[in-house]
Amino acid sequence: MQLNKHYAELNESYLFSTIARKVREYQAAHPEADVIRLGIGDVTLPLPAPVIEALHGAVAEMGVQETFHGYIPSEQGYPFLRDAIRGYYAERGVKISSDEIFISDGAKSDLGNLLDCFAADNTVLVPDPVYPVYVDDNVMAGRSIVYMAANAGNDFLPMPPADGAGAAADIVYLCSPNNPTGAAYTPAQLKTWVDWAIEHKAVILYDAAYECFVTEPGCARSIYEVPGAERCAVEVCSFSKMAGFTGTRCGWTVVPTGIGSEGQNLNKMWLRRQTTKFNGVAYIIQRGAAAVFTPEGRAAIEENLAYYRRNAAVIAAALDAAGVWYCGGKNSPYIWLRCPAGMDSWQFFDWLLDTAHVVGTPGAGFGPCGEGYFRLTAFGDAERTKEAAGRLRSALAKL
Ligand code: PLP
Predict the structure, then answer these.
(1) Fewer beta carbons within 10 Å, N or C terminal of the chain?
(2) Number of the ligand 1 atom closest to the C-alpha atom of 178
(3) Where in the chain is the domain with CATH 3.40.640.10?
(4) Quick check: CB of 108 below 6 Å from ligand 1?
(5) Ligand 1 centroid – CA 31 distance (Å)
(6) Is pLDDT above 90 for 396?
(7) Which atom of ligand 1 lies at the shortest distance from residue 207's CA?
(8) How much is the pTM?
């Protein structure tokens, strides 16, 4: 037996363990410090009431022979949920058919699993800084990875490479609104990517896990707003941030029927992959997810999203008052700030913890281009976020 040697090539992820250790050590040395965490990507608010009601209803159904659900008729997901998602896109004029929608247990699994359908010698293009999962999924499979810089020069929205190794990439990851930078592409920018992908016979794996946070009319919520995307782009979505499903686990992936290469069709391959390796998402969970799209569900999630948006505005106001450069926060729960006074990411982390007792995430942890930047999240408790923003403002004023 031989083990997959590529696992030995994975970089240990020190980011969150280092943060946890530093906070532990700080608290041990300063037991009186009231530390506020604005570093986590998990949500604060519980599941909305219409979702809970639907979950209860589905649990009751499972206890009655006539309404019991066993193996799911289609690993792809129940039609009631796929149709609801189709309707969600249709509201925005995006036409997708139900057989292009696959229900998943979240975006993270599909972002990795999709790679089963692609050749191991494909080259992958990923932004830097980046959600680390894209990189690790491909390192595990032994693919060669090319990085494209996201920086202040391109508003943290890299565009297709004209030359170099990236120009020959087969698989491109785009995340918009972006984790960690909060930057969001416009449809015009995505059109450039789609044209490039079609011309280069590449596929775009588009992570839209934060699409529900888009508020500005000029920003895209789906890559399928762009004509041609149905020929080159897969879109991965999630109920995690949209409706508080981080622990409940549900998402969806759109694999258009029009993507293929050398006689093979990606939609058919993904269906085959899922029917072989996945037995679908629990009926109960799919019922809970479908409740998100009812009028009551939509109203409830809008309230939750408004809560997080207010947090983002509170953090942004503190940075504005201090004249600190940042992006994100408007179409995203993440605020990406430039560390003031020439500090690097970890220096700012230490300074902020020591001066304001506030914890965030050093940008350098997301890739070399993140050095000198810092991520704060709007997913915290509103009162604690106000308190943290107040402390941030006074600490920055003293610099
Ligand atoms: N994609 C991005 C960019 C994320 O930040 C996250 C989670 O933080 C995910 C995907 C994973 O989402 P899910 O909970 O649906 O697996």
Answers:
(1) N
(2) 3
(3) 69-293
(4) yes
(5) 33
(6) yes
(7) 1
(8) 0.97
Q: Mutate which of 16, 238, 242, 377 to test ligand 1's pocket (most atoms within 8 Å of Cβ)?
A: 238
* Correct CATH for 69-293 of 3.30.70.20, 3.10.25.10, 3.40.640.10, 3.30.420.40: 3.40.640.10
pLDDT digits (tens, 9 = 90+) for 108-161: 999 999 999 999 999 999 999 999 999 999 999 999 999 999 999 999 999 998
Residue found by looking up tokens 């258009």 in the block: 256
What atom of ligand 1 comes closest to residue 238's alpha carbon?
Answer: 15
What confidence tens digit (pLDDT) does each residue in 337-372 have?
999 999 999 999 999 999 999 999 999 999 999 999
- Does residue 207's CB lie within 6 angstroms of at least one atom of ligand 1? yes
Residues of the chain with CATH 3.90.1150.10: 5-47+296-397
Q: Please give the pLDDT value at position 164.
A: 81
Query: Does residue 14 register a pLDDT over 90?
Result: no
